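#random but structural
TW: two for the price of one
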Amino acid sequence: MDKYEQVIELAKRRGFLWNSFELYGGTAGFYDYGPLGSTLKRRIEQIWRETYVVQEGYMEIEAPTIGIEEVFVASGHVGGFSDPLCECKNCGEAFRADHLVDKIVAVADALSNEELDRVIRENNVKCPECEGELGEPYEFNLMFKTDIGPGSGRQGYMRPETAQGMFIDFLRLARFYREKLPFGATQIGKSYRNEISPRQGVIRLREFTQAEAEIFIDPNDKRHSNFSRFADTAVNLYSDEAQDKGAVEKMTLGEAVEKGIIAHEFLAYQIGLTNHFLQRIGVAGDKLRFRQHMKDEMAHYAIDCWDAEIETDRFGWVEVVGIADRTDFDLKAHAAVSKTELSIYREYSEPKMVTQFVVKPNMGKLGPLFKGKAKNVAEALKALSQEELEQDNITVIIDGEEFTVPKDIVDFAEETVKISGENIIPHVIEPSYGIDRIFYSTMEHAFEEEMVAGKEDTEEEARIVMRLKKEVAPVQVAILPLLTREELIGPAKSIEVQLKQKGLLVSYDDSGTIGRRYRRNDEIGTPYSITIDYDTLEDNTVTIRDRDSMKQVRAPIDGIADLVYEMIYMNKDFESAGKAL
């Protein structure tokens, strides 16, 4: 078995991950999180909240997972959120066309359908399942479609990302933050993509969890007030230029900004924050890199975009976080479709005298002429140039309908006015985290199989251990009475209550030999095990065992909850926790 199979086998056996709908044969692209998996996932999410909500101050919102069609028309998902699908003419199996040729060409996902078809034909690529001939690639929209309401209802879609809810709520968020840039919102929740052929476990799911932040910043000032926090942090950067050379460069974020490799401080700060978060939850630093989108894959509206990629044993480098400067694309797109101005008012430090071209439609005459359309006609007139307004017939188009306005009911002139501020459309910095991929990567990087001394210290035996970070582990402390005797169960239960009151994740385990219970807890990543034995009844002490070193110390029950809490959250050294055994 490769490492992926070992991790998934353990995950299924120990209650981290299970195939969804297993009773009915299952279906690809869906997984259930078992008791330990749900807890581990929530721990990752909670640390993400602590990072972005508590420390950065980007408050959390919760928007519906179903959106009306207009939202996704504006965002571009209805017209452009698709993957190239290729079907086998023989067995009918469907595949992503770019995945079929990603070992043949360097950037397969940048090719058009015609180019993909040419590569498939020229290289005689066959169906991976039956070796049959493949059909021509075509676009397949990845959104799940649904109807809202009875009958024909209203067209809706399951959201393919959590971001759009934060853009829709922009004006509310701006008022909440008193229109002072920068400000941001976060959201953790389910997203849905009808993937063509999800064959990579939790790496590619049809229902998955995202954690995203949308940070609205001044388009003319992209410095970060706390950039010094990460300026000297060295990270593995796989820039556009480095990808041409085929070599990752390690450099500080400050140096990367200074050299123009990363567009600006605010984006670099988000890369630093992502690096900090991923390593805090247990991603190995030497298996983490930040890859810049190359020129031919960069979204047309993005100034700069970087992906945090984690190295995995089976799948190689896997994207787990996207960090992008999306400029004002999203707010402008929603403003255009909703016909609502999405901007904020920024007051100048001192008023300015500005010469403006001012158009003044006569509403008293426009009203009777155009009735309900008068306001829209007036707004359209204000957008015209002086040359257009000087024509004998002034024409405006509203929702595809043409209106002719008499020249004598529109005045215009240049005026010098004093203005105190201006409306600006903020730019958006978006860190977008794939929680399921991070969950798997954390498990794989923690998984280890090693040979340790056996029962008599003369023979070796295999030990599987999940070296999960202590604050992430789904079980932080195991309570193990040596025997299932009433005199030992009483103090064991008392210690369990103390630890739970301290907010620690505790498991009570009295099944099997003590050695078997140690191994069981090693497998699920429990950092510490506390054994209650007959010496406990004599001297009121217990044995604490460390998962990683397997060393043991004897410590008093009095203050045990504070002691374990300090070891988990305050980096208290295990050796100082008690008397070594």
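TW: number two ↓
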Amino acid sequence: MDADTLDQAVAAIRTRGYFSAFPESPSPRIYGPDAAVEGQRAFEAWQDREFPVGTPGSDGTVANEKSPFGIPLDVRYPKVDAAGLDGLLAAARAGMAQWRDAGPDTRVEVTLEILQRLHRRVFELANAVMATTGQAFVMAFQAGGTHALDRALEAVAFAHTEMTRHPATMVWERPAKGDPVRVEKTFTVVPRGVAVVIGCTTFPTWNSYPGLFASLVTGNPVVVKPHPRAVLPLAITVQVCQEVLAERGFDPHLVTLAAEAEGTGLAMDLATRPEVRIVDFTGSGEFGGWLESHATQALVFTEKSGVNPVVIDSTDSFRGLTANLAFTLSLYSGQMCTTSQNIYVPAGGIETDEGHKSFADVGAGLAAAVDKLLADEARAVELLGAIVNDDVLGRVDRAADLGEVVLEPRPLNHPSLKNAVVRTPAIVAVDAGDPSGADAAGDRPYTRECFGPVTFLVRTADTGQSLDLVRRLGHERGAMTAAVYSTSESVLDAAREVALDVGVALSENLTGGVYVNQSAAFSDYHGTGANPAANAAYVDAAYVTGRFRIVQSRRPAPS
């Protein structure tokens, strides 16, 4: 990857236009006739063996991964526990001064080489993401491979821009009587310290790469702490980082893998160590809040849970609306932080190009669209993927307990992976003010995050109440995405005002091939940092600038 690619990426983050450095189609016409087979073989070669990656402070090995598809894994990784953190963090810090002194341009060059090497292994990476997360292959190739690499490049582009905004050296001159006062000044980008990236089980690369590469390129050593059930994609990533760093004469332990036995709480031990100055986390709101409260010595970036809303007021394409939302609700079985959870519809129904639709008609239309989309089981599993864990499976199987079932979830048989756990989405109708199912705090099921393929069709008094719920739950619970459907400009204006108040990205009248739960690198910001769902955005300047400081030195300049 050359400097021209970086220049294009920097231009793209300024214009917010389309740009991608990594082709998203796994077509043999792009990657060659043997790439897919070779990548699968490379992935399979890791099964039932010890993964070769350097982890100082490790003791023995650990293997926790269990594929939602039933794919055999049994990969063993160096195990880290609290007792080994002194050695791990000392090793991470050992090469920091040399990496700092290399300067921004060299760090960018090395980081771009890492991304290029990862791209060469993208089919291997995609198979690892598929096996550990339950994403179908094409999604794993894109979200887990090429799109993740684009997000990493986006972070590098922002970091390069911010690190080079000032000169490295200059001569400051102030007029004075006689000879001017001349001072030579040097400005050095100084890293904040050890960074920890805490991976998640659904998108181990896409959600980890922005923080990993933003920290690394700004001079910080990075400890990668994967989710115990999704280690392999990040182990491959760390392996490539270490290889490139060593080849370029840097300490390979500037990037290390910290795999743990499930349930040991390594993330808490790591995140609160005094050496750790940056923490990146994607996952539950509960643990994200814990990190923000307890890792006070560090700069903490969190992407947590939220309740993503859709407001349906009216539409000029009912068929397009239902088809678009059916895809959104089905993609990866709703196991995305951007998937819509609550669909608000007035009790009196909506006006459409097909005439008036009652509340029940809207539910029936959505259910029919999902059924049509998933009618062919062999094609459906390539959209749905597999259910990532038992918690999600339990929620979808108990959907009938949450309200009136509009669309019953059902299991599907995967044509080639007989042990895959696959479910179609559930849609449940509830009244906005119905107190049934409320918890001790009075929160009803639809007001809490229900991660996975369960969608609430919420009956409201009118669109005004729908927008009020978006505002209230946005401030209380947060949201990563929001959507509105209306033929009224005044309603769209009101929805935009609510979205600005809440601080949530808004999609309007999506009826074609763009979906509310998809995010394009270099153009769409993922999260805003303006509501409880996330305290940062992938990727903006604020995401990178806190990871380093500018330290100056000065001396009298020669006359």
